[in-house]
Automatic annotation (TrEMBL):
Lipid metabolism in keyword set: no
Family statement: Belongs to the COG7 family.
Name of the featured protein: Conserved oligomeric Golgi complex subunit 7
GO CC terms of this entry: Golgi membrane; Golgi transport complex
Localization in the cell: Golgi apparatus membrane
Organism whose genome encodes this protein: Octopus vulgaris (Common octopus)
Lineage, opening ranks: Eukaryota, Metazoa, Spiralia, Lophotrochozoa, Mollusca
Alphabetic keyword roster: Golgi apparatus, Membrane, Protein transport, Transport
GO BP term, pick one: intracellular protein transport
Membrane topology: Peripheral membrane protein
Length: 655
């Protein structure tokens, strides 16, 4: 058996050697005849000779002079191509179907189809570029927008005409036409880049983004039309997707430098809209009315910006949009604060006026608080809308498509898988790192890992609400402050008696609270009736503003059933804090002055108790004022050091 196998192997090698010798003889014969055939210029005969030489060459791969034979054959193919080129060009220009089919067969036989495609491209490219120049020359008064529309309409018409013609000449016309259009768009003279640059300069910075959107919509219509046409002719050939992507990249390439500046363009557009929102008026009521009207205008501007982002960037610029919106809202909050400062100045808050008590001012401050609440509510709604829009606009690219010619592929250069998301993003974004960051951001949104995309904006709103609450608080607190400021300088604190009576031995209940503290008490007692008409009503915006805009002297906590209670608590604590600080400014207390101060303190504590409010803040001061000299030191050791030291000095008690 082994002998038979060896004999069979020897037989096979002998046959291969015999075939090689025959092919070598055949090659020699064909080589000798080919020059004569070329002289006859019989194209079919020349082609037949070259095809025969190609077949012979396949059997001579292992021969020593194989490379020389290849070079000789290539020279002969070049010679045939040179002979044919004028006729090929003429056939393509004339769109002669019969002639081009003949040449396509010849070029395919001699493995030169790629060269034939180049001839086709060259003929069509000249015509299309000349058509572009003709558009500009004959329509010089038109804009770039009109030129581009006209040219893309012509390209689309050319596609539909040529795809039918090419289908009868080439086996797979789709990548041939896609590559042709890609070359044409890149080589236009003047280039699309130059035309766009001039056009944008003519339009002015305030409408740059709108101008770009209008142009991009023209390009997008053309791109989608081509994509639909490719889909109609689609086969499993991966060249379709590659060539289409290259074509679409060339279509959108003109916008990439501007897409990288989208954040700036959007900031300019939003700032123009903010400049058109009037917020100031001479009258306080009118200024606050303008602030109220600005809320809907602000949200309308943000929604328009969202639409512009989708129109210009297909959603791939959302990260830039979020940055622009952040700047927009921060600028608005800055303007709001400026108006608030002007309103505050007109209210003269902080100045001591006898006739200051004007509850209409508090009503206006409450209206501003409501506006803050509306801003917070609508900003949070916008936040949710943006998240939904981002997911719906970009999330679809993570879903497999059964029909789109653009599918996940492998990058030729890197060998890495390129997702559908990355393919679409690459049309508009130049930086691969930006694409990866955006892709990760969208995936996190889909997974619910990013609950907010406007967190920095809402934080600014919360700060704004806090400032407006402080404004409302100051209006109410001004009356109390007026009575308490300066009480430390009253002569009663160093007096030895009340009138003609020596009071050092009189009991404390024989003294009456002084006018300054009774006015404070009376004002506090009227607050519930004054506050309730404004705050007790069920107002979601006011409640939301209060939740996120802490009143002075209150801590973060749940809002009580009636927000008026929280206002009372804030004002009461503010009163106690200010009163405590004023007390600590008293330079000296006589025994009579001490008893009088205790009487005043007891009165205030009783008022607060009647209002259902805690007076714990005043407890330490009362204890230190009531303590006998011999009890003071052990008591002071348990008290805050500053408080104990100051009161000991007032009362001339050594620690």
């Amino acid at each position: 058996m082994q002998t038979l196998l060896k004999l069979d192997g020897i037989k096979s090698r002998m046959k291969a050697t015999s075939d090689a010798l025959k092919e070598a003889d055949n090659w020699t014969t064909l080589s000798a005849d080919v020059e004569e055939v070329f002289l006859s210029q019989d194209i079919q005969a020349i082609t037949a000779k070259l095809v025969g030489m190609q077949q012979s060459l396949q059997m001579l791969v292992d021969t020593p002079d194989y490379q020389q034979r290849c070079q000789h054959l290539e020279k002969l193919q070049n010679k045939l191509e040179t002979l044919l080129s004028p006729q090929v060009v003429a056939a393509f220009n004339a769109q002669s179907l019969e002639a081009t089919q003949t040449y396509a067969k010849i070029f395919e036989d001699i493995n030169r189809l790629s060269q034939l495609y180049k001839y086709y491209h060259k003929c069509q490219k000249v015509q299309l570029i000349n058509h572009w120049k003709n558009i500009l020359d004959t329509n010089s008064d038109d804009t770039f927008l009109e030129w581009l529309t006209s040219f893309y309409d012509h390209l689309l018409s050319t596609w539909h005409g040529q795809i039918k013609w090419c289908s009868q000449v080439f086996r797979d016309p789709v990548p041939i036409l896609c590559d042709l259009f890609t070359e044409v768009i890149k080589d236009l003279d003047p280039s699309l880049d130059d035309c766009l640059s001039v056009y944008i300069d003519e339009q002015g910075s305030n409408v740059t983004l709108i101008s770009l959107i209008n142009l991009k919509q023209v390009s997008e219509r053309f791109s989608k039309s081509i994509e639909s046409a490719v889909e109609y002719c689609m086969s499993d050939n991966p060249e379709h997707a590659v060539s289409l992507l290259d074509l679409q990249k060339s279509i959108y390439a003109v916008y990439q430098p501007y897409l990288s500046k989208y954040k700036h363009f959007e900031e300019v557009a939003l700032q123009c809209e903010l400049d058109n929102i009037r917020l100031d008026h001479e009258e306080i009521v009118d200024s606050i009315g303008l602030l109220g009207e600005s809320v809907s205008k602000l949200m309308s501007s943000a929604k328009k910006a969202n639409e512009r982002c989708i129109q210009f960037t297909d959603g791939f610029g959302y990260l830039y949009l979020l940055e622009a919106l952040k700047m927009f809202y921060i600028s608005y909050c800055r303007e709001f604060k400026r108006v608030l400062s002007n309103v505050r100045a007109k209210c003269y808050i902080g100045r001591q006026q006898e006739d200051f008590e004007d509850w209409s001012l508090f009503q206006q401050s409450l209206r501003m608080i409501q506006i803050c609440g509306e801003l917070i509510i609508q900003t949070e709604e916008l936040d949710k809308t943006l998240i939904n829009n981002i997911i719906s606009t970009l999330g679809k690219y993570f879903l497999p498509s059964q029909h789109s010619p653009l599918k996940e592929t492998t990058d030729k250069k890197t060998g890495k898988k390129v997702s559908l998301f990355q393919r679409h993003a690459s049309l508009l974004l130049e930086d691969e790192a930006d694409i990866e960051i955006l892709e990760e951001f969208v995936l996190k949104l889909e997974e619910g890992d990013t609950p907010s995309v406007l967190s920095d904006v809402t934080k600014e709103m919360f700060k704004l609400s806090q400032e407006v609450h402080k404004f409302g608080f100051d209006i109410v607190f001004a009356q109390l402050k007026k009575h308490l400021i300066g009480m430390a300088n009253m002569e009663v604190w160093i007096s030895l008696s009340a009138g003609t009576a020596i009071t050092s031995d009189l009991p404390a209940f024989s003294l009456s609270p002084q006018e300054y503290i009774t006015k404070v008490g009376q004002y506090l007692m009227t607050l519930p009736q004054l506050l309730e008409p404004y705050i007790i009503q069920d107002n979601q915006a006011v409640t939301v503003a209060l939740q996120h805009g802490r009143l002075p002297y209150t801590e973060d906590q749940d809002i009580p059933e009636h927000s008026a209670d929280l206002w009372l608590q804030s004002i009461a604590r503010g009163t106690m804090f200010l009163y405590s600080e004023e007390i600590l400014k008293i330079y000296e207390l006589s025994p009579h002055g001490t008893k009088q101060l205790v009487t005043d303190l007891d009165y205030l504590c009783n008022v607060l108790d009647d209002l259902g409010l805690s007076a714990e803040q005043m407890h330490d001061i009362k204890q230190l004022l009531k303590a006998e000299p011999d009890e003071f030191r052990p008591l002071a050791s348990r008290m805050p050091q500053r408080l104990a030291n100051v009161i000991s000095q007032m009362r001339n008690i050594e620690l």
